[in-house]
Design brief:
single chain; 336 residues; alpha/beta; nine-stranded mixed beta sheet; two-stranded antiparallel ribbon; 18% strand
């Protein structure tokens, strides 16, 4: 049984936080994980809005989880400067790049709780290997054991999601401009999104299967809250053996297949229509080219005929001129 502080329904992580964490992780290459502080505010509906973050100097011993270092002075100085810029942003928790929970996370969380009593832990996977959100949110709770042993601190999972304001959406679209393929249609994008969703669902089902197997094998204790939630999930599943469900599913599938069939017929008819129009246009162009060739030949013949007539006239003029000159020469001799 777990007793938690004021209920936190969900954690909303902004894109700026993800970019800052990835930049922090890429700059620090000699550590398995990096740690930082989350800034934001609590909303009235029980959600935590994480809008900003900053990195912290952190180091730990790989062999001994109890040996670690976190710079308190740096945290206080950085938070003071952030507070001057935006007083609305408070410390809401801390993050690390995991990708899973570590043994000393409870101890680090106790340090952060000095600045934020209800601090959240957000594990942000900088190099995700599986589909889905790269964030996992947790909150520390007191776990009461049934055997009467002293209570102990543990982490309880809190739903997390991505959220952004209008200005952040514009910035993200600008960053993704070179990544998105604008030539891909909306149908392809929808199918891709559904495929990614199914892969993510399959991954989560594998996690549930692994957890239940470990519970059955006695490796993990039975958590009744998780079992109740799994039972709620199973109750939401439809009864596929119900006759009415089968009939409704068949009718809907047939309607969708009919739409696809009609669309294929229309697409084929349009393709044939375009092919016929293309043939007609090519035939008309060939006729026009043939007429233009004939007209050119006629023009060439008429030009040749005119040229011959002009040459003949010039020849006749020259002959007449020579005759006139001879006549004039004969008259002059006669006078002498």
């Amino acid at each position: 049984m777990s007793v938690s502080p004021p209920e936190i329904k969900k954690v909303v992580v902004h894109p700026l936080v993800l970019l800052s964490v990835v930049d922090h992780f890429n700059r620090i290459r000699n550590q398995r994980r990096v740690v930082g502080v989350l800034l934001g505010h609590w909303q009235k509906n029980g959600s935590v809005d994480v809008s900003n973050s900053f990195a912290l100097p952190f180091d730990e011993d790989d062999k001994d989880a109890s040996v670690w270092y976190l710079d308190h002075d740096y945290l206080e100085n950085m938070y003071g400067m952030f507070k001057k810029v935006n007083a609305r942003e408070k410390i809401v928790g801390w993050y690390h790049t995991g990708p899973k929970l570590h043994q000393n996370d409870i101890a680090v969380n106790e340090v952060v709780r000095k600045y934020c009593p209800n601090s959240i832990l957000c594990i942000i996977d900088a190099k995700p290997k599986e589909l889905g959100l790269p964030t996992e949110a947790y909150i520390a709770v007191e776990e009461v054991h049934d055997d009467g042993t002293p209570t102990s601190k543990t982490f309880e999972h809190v739903p997390s999601e991505m959220g952004a304001e209008e200005a952040e959406e514009v910035g993200v679209e600008h960053l993704l401009r070179d990544i998105k393929d604008t030539s891909v249609g909306t149908l392809s994008q929808r199918i891709t999104a559904q495929l990614l969703g199914l892969k993510g669902l399959h991954s989560q089902m594998q996690h549930i299967h692994s957890y239940l197997e470990q519970v059955v094998a006695g490796k993990l204790p039975v958590n009744h809250q998780i079992i109740y939630q799994l039972q709620d999930i199973f109750n939401l599943l439809p009864d596929v053996n119900l006759l009415e469900f089968i009939r409704a599913f068949t009718v809907r599938t047939n309607d969708q297949m009919l739409v696809i069939y009609v669309a294929s017929l229309i697409r084929s008819i349009i393709a044939l229509h375009n092919l016929i129009n293309n043939k007609i246009q090519n035939r008309d162009l060939e006729k026009q080219e043939g007429k233009s060739d004939k007209d050119k030949k006629k023009d060439d013949k008429s030009k040749d005929g005119d040229k011959k007539d002009g040459d003949k006239k010039d020849k006749d003029k020259k002959d007449d001129k020579k005759k006139d000159e001879k006549k004039k020469g004969g008259k002059g001799d006669a006078k002498k």
